[in-house]
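Reviewer 2 asked us to include a model.

Predict the structure of this chain.
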Amino acid sequence: MKATGIVRRIDDLGRVVIPKEIRRTMKIREGDPLEIFTTSGGEVIFKKYSMVGEVKEAAVSCAAALGKMTKLSVLICDRDTCIAAANISKREVIDRTVTKELEYIMEGRNTVRDRQNANALHDYRSPIAAASPIVTGGDVAGCVVLLSNETAEKAGDTDIKLLDLSSEILADEL
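Predicted model (structure tokens):
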């Protein structure tokens, strides 16, 4: 654990403000859920909560099925990182952070296709063929992404329907 040197007081309602610098560095946005842990040493630890991470087994199964049906590479991401993948080296993509482009797609809350100039993950060059945000209870929890392959194959209409179905199934799991 890294000390920041920042000290905050708890107000009369039991609230503490997380400094803007820490929120920006940790990509904590207004409304983001935080999980609270305590240690026997008296520490209170806040951790970003990933709704999609809670259904990781379902995400892994969904990615595998979608990859088998579309023959394209599949990523399933929460709002910050890739948590499941298929038809791609998992070692290269799991836990890699999402790009601003993918964040923007998620915030748009609609399925997009043919984003050949947009990559889903930082330092991983593979264009987005299509992406469908996972929206549950009005909140964006993550995104299901199809990547273009080496032959620059695009996602067809059936692929898009399967992509949308996958994001809906994951949203229902949350």
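The helical segments are 20-25, 51-54, 56-70, 90-93, 100-108, 157-173. The two ends are 30 Å apart (CA to CA). We have added this to the supplementary material.
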